[in-house]
Amino acid sequence: MREAVGTAVLRIVGAVTLVGGVAMVVVPRPVLTPLNHTIVVPTCIVALGLVFLLRLPQRLRAMLASRWTGPVLAVLGGGVGAFVGELLHFPYGWDASVVMGLARRIHAGLPVTPGEYHYLSEYPNNLPLLAIDRVAAAAGARLGVTPDSLLIGLNAVALLASIWLAHSVVRRCAGPVPAAAAALLITGFVGLSPWMAVPYTDIFAMPFTIAAVGLAGLAWSNRGARRWWAWGAAVVAGAAAYVIKTTPGVLVVAGVLVILLSLLPSRRRVDDDGPTKPAGRRVLRTLAAAGLTVLAFVGSAAGITTVARHATGADLSRVHTSVSAPIIWWVANGMIEIPAKDYISYGGFSRTMVNAIKGRTQAEMKAYSTQFIKAQWETRGVTGMAAFYANKAVWNFNDGMFSAWGEGGDAKRKPYADTPVAATLMEFNGFHGRYYESRASITEGVWAAVVLVAGFGLLRAPFRRDLLMLALSVLGIGTFILIFQGRSRYLLTFAPVIIALSCAVLPWARAGLVPWTRERGVRGRAQA
């Protein structure tokens, strides 16, 4: 029964992902990024053709099988990210700028203003970012470099680690060729992204997110003490990601669901938990493991948060979280449509919603949010709400640039570097660059192909707990941005996870659609 339920979950996630991928191509929703669908669709078709029909020469496949492939591709990807980030370094705005300015003031010994403390009270989730920025300000002063330069370097290190980890995850699931593809795709989507120039939580949390997923998968491939050590490390990594960026909180839900699968009996005499145990003992062990996972996650997150809060250098007694929005407000904000010039924002940031709760108590905020949600249901009805959330899902996933240049007034900014190389890069990577629309459209076409391959592959892949962890993590972030306020930037932290899932199921996708391209060894990996 365990295998049947696990396989069914993979199929459901695959079907949802495949439908979403088709919608991205057939009925896309306009996004901030200018896209030309006469470029997007052919690019997607070409990418799918390469995925399903291309077969690499044996010599190249042997080279990719080297144990040095992952580290080399990771270093190259990190180098690309550092190069792009440094050349595109620009005077960013919004929260990233507010927190960096505050970190500089604290490091300089200047007093924090009441307005700045009110900001931290409204958005206490940015305290870990403040700690990171303050450490960068202190280190930069010692080294004679700017905090921004250090943090662009930190972005590059985070990218390097994410590529290496994703390569390891995919190699364990599907072999060296899909693993190399994952590394190259992450470099393309993240390393070449304008986000490399912005010191914010999305990329800082990225390596911890893929590490948590990868370590969880590694735990299920081991037994005894090694399993517990790997699982414990996965929990701590997930907690670190959650403290830096809220969205990875879905990882603990995915992990617990994978554990709870052990409540069901296995058809094997010796399964991935070892020799099959009596039902009562199996239930107790499973529930205990799930409970310990939650406790360890909460404890780790609390400990990391405490360290981060003290590292901010701010007077924490003046940070009053009672003025921050309750969870239900984020749900309400996620239900609003905001018409823009060329697109509609589905559940994105709303200044109107922010102003509506200013000066209110927690009880008043909750009452306002509850009434707003009720009004949306009454106005739209069941059919209207279903259409809204369908539009929201496509809108969030329909931007392979992850809303680059979309925060504050970033789209109008120019990089500090005044060199021919920087100017050329801005033509391709700047929001108003001559070739940005074509570059973004090609990126979106490849991104749609990644989503489509993930969906189709999950419809064919066998039950494995590491694949299930990947699938549930992707489903988790998709559900998060569907329920709460969100935009495609929130997917950036999970980009390595989504790409890893797509590449991990690639052999089964190829074997299912084009049988004569069946990869040697797929059968063995399917039974792993």
UniProtKB/TrEMBL annotation:
Assigned keywords, A-Z: Membrane, Transmembrane, Transmembrane helix
TM regions (residue ranges): 9-27, 39-56, 68-90, 150-170, 177-197, 203-221, 228-244, 250-266, 287-308, 440-459, 466-484, 490-509
Keyword Transmembrane helix belongs to the record: yes
InterPro entries the record matches: RgtA/B/C-like
Domain Glycosyltransferase RgtA/B/C/D-like: 154-263
Name the UniProt record assigns to this protein: Glycosyltransferase RgtA/B/C/D-like domain-containing protein
Organism annotation: Intrasporangium chromatireducens Q5-1
